[in-house]
Amino acid sequence: MTPDLASLRLLVLVGEMGSIGRAAAKLGIAQPSASKRLASLERKFGLALVDRTRRGSALTPDGRVVTDWARRVLDELNVLVTGAEALRSRRAAELRVAASLTVAEHLAPGWIGELRRARKDLYVGLVVTNSSLVCDLVRGGEVDLGFVESPTVPAELSARRVASDRLAVVVPPNHPWARRRKPLSAADLTETPLVVRERGSGTRETLERALKRAKVGDLHPVAELGSTTAVRSAVVDGAGPAVLSVLAVDADLSEGRLVEVTVDGLDLRRQLRAVWPGGRRLLGSAAELLAVALRASSG
């Protein structure tokens, strides 16, 4: 039942252009071939997706829903391709970038993709690690620009806010907290074993600083894991609650795999920042990438 990507692109174009013929021309294929692809797609889904008339083609109500999903799949594919290309080219890169995991997984691929659309000859190398090590790489001159999610930045680095984020307490739907009517207190988090990121992670540092401001004690981890994906998977599997970026768990929350639990008296908002060596003006492609990130945050 899994559709091919070319058919999904065709369906999206039909919805945008209102014509199978124009959509086929855009993709460089013959109209009869396009019609066969759409018919095959409809058979796979068991749904009528396109109304065909002499005046043109229009999506059916089911077709509009499927097209919205298809557009999301294609957008995510572009993120995947851009991110993988950046990782592959990091050794011979003209622009060397390091990013913390949340930024690298959810924001940096889009920024890099936009920059490369304007600079098709530019190769971008991306190192993905935690915020503490990003700062070390910038300090050591191993990368031209870094992106971090930690609440503090070393004094010897220059920094600029590029996005805002929020951490959320998340549990699986069968966890007792998912059925609570009253918010948790900050103390509840320190009295409960949590699944957490490793030390040096910006997510963990943000949580620890918020708990310290609330004067409720220290974390008691049930597990310390080296990536956001690992923490998320552990929570889904029932290892315990966790505090993660809403960017990282947005799909899980909307699709019901995880539930966000409200906490009173704890500010889990944070700023995501670009960092570079202090006292040095960003030039060239590093300055261009920062400008892309800033435009994205203001859009």
From TrEMBL:
PROSITE patterns: HTH_LYSR (PS50931)
UniProt keywords, alphabetically: DNA-binding, Transcription, Transcription regulation
Keyword DNA-binding (UniProt): yes
Region forming the signal peptide: none
Domain HTH lysR-type: from-to ranges: 3-60
The keyword Ligase appears for this protein: no
InterPro entries: LysR_HTH_N (IPR000847), LysR_subst-bd (IPR005119), WH-like_DNA-bd_sf (IPR036388), WH_DNA-bd_sf (IPR036390)
Organism superkingdom: Bacteria
SUPFAM superfamilies associated with the record: Periplasmic binding protein-like II, Winged helix' DNA-binding domain
Protein family according to the UniProt entry: Belongs to the LysR transcriptional regulatory family.
Protein name per its UniProtKB record: HTH-type transcriptional regulator CysL
